[in-house]
Amino acid sequence: MELTQDVSKVEVKGLEARYYDRLMDIITLGYYPKFIKKAIDDLGLKEGQKVLDFGAGTGRNALLMRKYIKESGKIVALEIGKEMKEQFLQKTKGYENILLKEQRIDEPFELGEKFDLVFISFVLHGFIQQKRDVIIENAKKHLKPGGVFAILDYANFDVESANPIVKFAIRKIECPLAEDFIKRDTKQMLEKHGFGDFEKSLYFKKYVRLLKGKKEK
Ligand SMILES: C[S@@+](CC[C@H](N)C(=O)[O-])C[C@H]1O[C@@H](n2cnc3c(N)ncnc32)[C@H](O)[C@@H]1O
C-alpha cells in the first residue's frame, strides 16, 4: 500500500496541541523534561549561534536552546499550528532573539539568512519520503557551510521485535508514516543530500535518537 500525506498526524491540532507538553510528560511517565533537556544539551550549541527550528511546537525546546546560545544568539522557529503558535508566543514573550515565523517546512522556502544549526524534533517521521527530501533540502539550503542538521526522532529499529509498548505505540497510536520512517536508514537519507561526519545519541532504550550531520557539500 502506497503511503500518502493524508494519513499523517504531524499537524497536531485541537486539545492534543493545547496540552501537548503535558501529554508528552504523561505518556513518558514524567521522563520527558529530563530527556528533552539532555537531548538539547547533546546538540552542542554555543553562545552566539543561530538556530532554525523546523516545526517548533510549543516553545519548550526554544527556551531550552536559548540557555546555550544566550542573548547574542538567535532562534528562528517555523510553525504552522494555530495552538502551537499561540503557546510558543506566550512562552517566549520578552525574548527578542526568539522569532516565530508561520512557514511550512515541506515546501521550498527562502529566509535569506544562514544558520549554524537546523533542528527538527519529532516532525520528520510524519511526512511521506518525497516531502522528507524537500525538508532535508530546506535544512541544507539554510545552513552555513559546515553547519549541522540535527534530527531528534525515532531511531531505526525492527518494530516487529520491539518492546510491546513501543510496538503498540508505533502501530496503533502513531500514523503509518512513523513505521515507514523507522524502517528507512536516516543516515543514508542525509548522505544523499550531502551531509556527513555523523554523531548520534540514543535515548528511551535506543528507540529515540538524535542524529547530527554536517553540511559537507
Ligand atoms: C509532534 S509535534 C513536535 C513539536 C516540537 N518539535 C517538539 O519536539 O516538541 C510536530 C510539530 O510540527 C508542526 N508541523 C507539522 N507540519 C508542519 C509543516 N508542514 N510545517 C511546519 N510545521 C509543521 C506541528 O504543528 C507541530 O507543532
Topology:
Layout: H1 14-18, H2 20-27, H3 32-41, E1 50-54, H4 60-69, E2 74-79, H5 82-91, E3 98-102, E4 115-121, H6 129-141, E5 143-154, H7 164-173, H8 176-183, H9 186-191, E6 195-203, E7 208-215
Parallel strand pairs: 1-2, 1-4, 2-3, 4-5
Antiparallel strand pairs: 5-7, 6-7
S-adenosylmethionine binds at residues 10-12, 55-57, 61, 78-81, 84, 104-106, 121-123.
Q: Count the domains.
A: 1
Bound molecules: S-adenosylmethionine
Name the beta content range: 15-25%
Count all strands and give the number. 7
CATH architecture: 3-Layer(aba) Sandwich
CATH topology: Rossmann fold
Major beta sheet summary: 7 strands, mixed
Strand order of the largest sheet: 3-2-1-4-5-7-6
Q: Radius of gyration, Cα only, in angstroms?
A: 16 Å
User: Which sequence of SSEs, written as H and E, runs from N to C?
Assistant: HHHEHEHEEHEHHHEE
Number of helices: 9
- Structural class determined from secondary elements: alpha/beta
Mean pLDDT across every amino acid position: 97
User: Could you name the CATH class?
Assistant: Alpha Beta
> What gross morphology would you assign?
globular
Q: Provide the low-confidence segments as ranges.
A: none
Q: What do these coordinates show?
A:
The protein is of the alpha/beta class and 217 residues long. It has one domain (5-104, 112-215): 3-Layer(aba) Sandwich (Rossmann fold), CATH 3.40.50.150. The chain is 37% helix and 24% strand. It has nine helices and seven strands. It has helices at residues 14-18, 20-27, 32-41, 60-69, 82-91, 129-141, 164-173, 176-183, 186-191, and strands at 50-54, 74-79, 98-102, 115-121, 143-154, 195-203, 208-215. The protein has a seven-stranded mixed β-sheet with strand order 3-2-1-4-5-7-6, sandwiched between helices. Helix 6 (129-141) links the parallel strand 4 and strand 5 (143-154). The longest helix has 13 residues, at 129-141. The relative contact order is 0.15. The mean pLDDT is 97. It binds S-adenosylmethionine (SAM).
